[in-house]
Amino acid sequence: MTALFFVDSNVLIYCHDSASPAKQSRAKQWIDHLWSARRGRLSIQVLQEFYVNVTQKVKPGLDRSRARQEISALTAWHAVVNNSLALLAAWDIQDRYGLSLWDSLIVAAAQATGSGFLLTEDLQHGQDFEGVVVVNPFLEAPPLSI
Description:
The protein is of the alpha/beta class. It has 6 helices and 5 strands. A hairpin with a 2-residue loop joins strand 4 (128-129) and strand 5. The radius of gyration is 14 Å and the shape is globular.
């Protein structure tokens, strides 16, 4: 399988959240797997949310320099930028599925990257958003091959 996986910020954040060791371990498995397979995708919105959370909310978290290094590396995952077309797509998703604007922007970004899967715990596992299927990384392990 050569599908792309769009990664939501919560997965990246859990990689640094020692308060949830089981989720931390699983999140790291997924991220390591996606790095190896070169199948990870994300958006600038995801990177912004990650930065704020790991530098201000997660304890012990990361200092700004380390967080910026990680984000710089993650830009290799073809970070999509939200623009006016993304906003229009997000509004359509919001109206159709009843999601928050922020979640709708994530789904729209996943669609824009051509991802077949959206890795997040914030939406319903298995839900299909017009070709982007939600995978809860804490309910499902990374596939043996992608």
